[in-house]
Amino acid sequence: MKKLKLVAVALVIGTASLFATNMEDTEESKKLMRTQIVELLDTPSFVVENDMTVDITFTFSSQGELVVLSVDSNNSDVLSYIRKNLNYKIIENPGERDKLYTIPLKVKAA
């Protein structure tokens, strides 16, 4: 009975530490990826009348290029600006190939 308890405790501790390290790496890479994407979308040359939040869905190609799949916006200026400045750009820390990523982006009125 003591061996069973010992094995159970070791399994719980080992599993908990495994999940903790994976979550930190994933969160850090997502923050780095978001920072680089925001830098690529520096300052638009058009004026937006109202503040809006736009969801950008993208993936990475086999060469590590960002591929924009969809932009949740009705404003054609915002749509073309995001696609022009993000599509096929390479960032330092690309995510996994063919995995879908979605980030919200706030567009503020000037």
Would you mind describing this structure in some detail?
The protein has 110 residues and is of the alpha+beta class. It has one domain. 45% of the residues lie in helices and 20% in strands. The chain contains two helices and three strands; from the N terminus they run αββαβ. It has helices at 2-40, 76-86, and strands at 52-60, 66-71, 101-107.
Strand order of the largest sheet: 2-1-3
Helix content: 40-55%
Specify the structural class. alpha+beta
Integer count of domains: 1
Could you spell the SSE succession in H and E letters?
HEEHE
**Multimeric status of the protein:** single chain
Strand content: 15-25%
Main sheet overview: 3 strands, antiparallel
Distance between the termini: 69 Å
List low-confidence stretches.
none
Number of DSSP E strands = 3
Principal-axes geometry comes out as: elongated
What is the mean pLDDT? 82
| Radius of gyration of CA atoms, rounded to a whole number | 20 Å
Number of helices: 2
